[in-house]
Amino acid sequence: MHAEIIATGSELMLGEQVDTNSAYIARKLREIGLPLAYITHVGDDLAAMVDAIRVALSRSDIILIGGGLGPTVDDVTRLAVARALGRELVFRPDLLEQIEARFRAYGRKMTENNRQQAYVPDGARPIENPVGTAPAFIVEHEGKSISCLPGVPREMTYLLDHAVIPYLRTRFDLHEVIVVRTLHTIGEGESRIDALIHDLEQSANPSIGLSAKQGQVDVRLAAKASSREEGRAVLAALEEQVRRRIGVLIFGADDDTLEGVIAALLAERRMTLATVELNTGGTISSRLTQRALPAMHDVFRGGLVLSGPNALRKTLDVEVDPSEQVGAVARAAQRVRMIHDTALGLAAMVRDAREGESGIPLYAALVWENGSETLERTYGGHPDLVAQWTASLALGMLWRHLRV
User: Fold this and answer.
1) Is the full-model pTM beyond 0.85?
2) Would you say 372 and 352 are in contact if contact means Cβ atoms under 8 Å apart?
3) How far apart are CA 12 and CA 183, in angstroms?
4) Are 187 and 247 found together in one domain?
5) pLDDT at 110
């Protein structure tokens, strides 16, 4: 048995809005042990929505549809569900009374087009919406279930938590849970990590999945079990195996961030940090200061954000020799360390690719009292992401130094 989400709205198809509702629903389904197999996005088109519902019915036992329950012409979810099931829309006076009462509570007069929200597919079970004007509904068909929820996040989360999840738990006798543990790694690519734990990824339960981000790879462990305690025990055993193989790359787990872990390590070691960045837009200092990290307040003395070699020369009196760019970055790290009187100086630079070069050159350097470390990479991805990649590489180098 598995579930499918159909997220509706032309704004999703146009890229004008991010689908955060599906992520929330997925987490809630995980809590009741219900695997999610598909997430389908469809615009506000009746024919397309009918097709999406019919496809979902052909492959999924439980379907959750978000959006399209409003009063406007493009709110077609009710009619789409009815047509997909071969049923009529029926008017429910009790729903109209609920809608009218909600408008009175808001001190507003209900317009005529809100009447359409009182229609549901024949045989559907309405769900009163105490936090909005759009009633939801559940309809069962040949042993399968379709739950239709408003697209407004506040309304969707309330009705999902208070009505749909309890219904699904009871209706389908869902007593298991899916427990997830995410390990965050830095310093190696997805393919390298896959090679190190490939055999462990063959297991169906517990399972392992990889997710690559800008300079970071997450290793997701998941287990379906009869209780959270049992699931955690299963994941603990699997995590131990993973850590034996790639533990040197793991900087944190679950809600940990690289910046937060670095802040804690700096505070623990009573070390201070200053940074200088060229052509990154201040990505490193932004990540260190905009994540609500109280520990960083005492250890991060400041960061310089410069536009290029000329600014570096004028600000820190460091010349950038085209033949020795990583050396210039190391000297910049040393200069910013001396100016701010810190234990550590971290510098990073993105250089424009020259004709004939296959990627964008990146440089980073970490300097301390008795030593230094430098890093050179070539970035071949989308230029819009180069600053985040550079920041992750530089911060990863800092983390590796601090963890020793």
Assistant:
1) no
2) no
3) 30
4) yes
5) 77
